Amino acid sequence: MKAFRLLRWSGSVLSPRIRPCVFHFFYKPPSNLRFLSAAASPLQQAIQHQNQDHIPEEDPGSSSTGPKDDGLIIPEDMPESLQQAVQHQNQDHISEEDPGSSYTGPEDDGLIIPEDMPESLQQEARLRALPSPPISAAKNSAKLAALHARLSFTPRLPIETLARCLVDATADPNPDFNNTSLALLGRDLYSYYTSEAILCRYPRLPTAVVFAAMSAYVGPRTLTQITKEWGVELVAEPGGEVDPGYLQCRREDSMLIKKHSPTSDTDPTSTIENGQPNIAGANRPNVDQKTWRRGVSSMTVYDDEFGDLIKSSSNRKSRNKDPKIETTTVEDACARFVQAVMGAIYLHRGKQAAKLFFKAHILSRHLDVGKMFEFKQPTLDLSKLCAREGFESPVARILSETGRASRHPVFIVGVFAGRQKLGEGAASSLNEARVRAAVGALKGWYLYSPLEVRVPSDTEGANARRWKPVLVDIGEVIV
Length: 479
Fold this sequence. Notes:
Order of helices and strands: EEHHHHHHHHHEEHHHHEEEH
Structural class: mainly alpha
Strand order of the largest sheet: 5-6-7
Largest sheet: 3 strands, antiparallel
């Protein structure tokens, strides 16, 4: 006997999935069936009676025909069209070759839509069978139209493309309808524009600081914050009936995320394992050597644009209760959405519009690069730097002091290379002031910026300026 049940979203009241119920069909009847609404419809009453575990045969008031019957109970006050629908769903055998049957085989997930069902319910059933909203729903979404206007997009960027940017691969695996291809293009554009802006503005910046600046500009956390600033909300559960103005993805279980946090040594996706980098499954040679040191030079070759390990697809383990269902984190889904928007702008409006969008939403953010430095031995680094550049050995000298015999003295120490002062620092002790002066001298060297900053992408386009070579430094000091 083919049994059916009503599916209804049981999440929050504010959830976007608050559409009417439709019924799907399964080969096994459910063990328990509960309805959330207080007042059940006649069709729900019929299904509730049908799925009762025990119906006494001796009850004269019961309309059951005994255990030999299939348990189908139809109230007398049910409309005739619904009675025919219930009887049609409880047929013992539905043949695929039957031309009068609407059953299309096991590939349609058992969805059966009777011909006499109202058109509104048929449309709702078709929408719920889709993994993401249809393309035609984009023009009727107020949230999507508001987002399109909020980002100052012109009609040259269709609203259907913006709706595709909001569909993650975990919600709809079809590459023709998700944002995978757009996000891949947008990620490369973000990396290109950000790296050239950082390297041309600070040509002497150490590689580790370049990675940190890249992450601060276009990292997952930053792109997640941008998604919130744009007013984009995440859907509770993706589906075809959801408003296309929501970001659709299947999120990981929060309890499993806490259990497998990145700080745990037992986490298979962590880059740290027993105090050593875990390169197993990464895009690196000699993955069996887990104790090998990851050098800064190898990060630029084998790792991503942020200096992090690139995990292979076979090494990524799902944190969902059902390993067959692909899930993602909120940060990754938001990052792919912002990257997909960049890719869509590049395809529909060209390079100049994509670069203007990058400057308005990414490069316009203030980033204090000087706070990203972390020197372990600043005095030794300064000595090595002076020796490499042919300067005299640095010497620390007291410039001024006050309150040496008091409880709160202040010493101002300067570091000199011959007669040229490299930096100065103030502290309550001579040693601390000398260290701060060395740090100031190193920052003054690494944070050098030319007066006119020109990037390679400025040479693209019809009105492009002629390229002028920029300073290329030999790199940071290796102690």
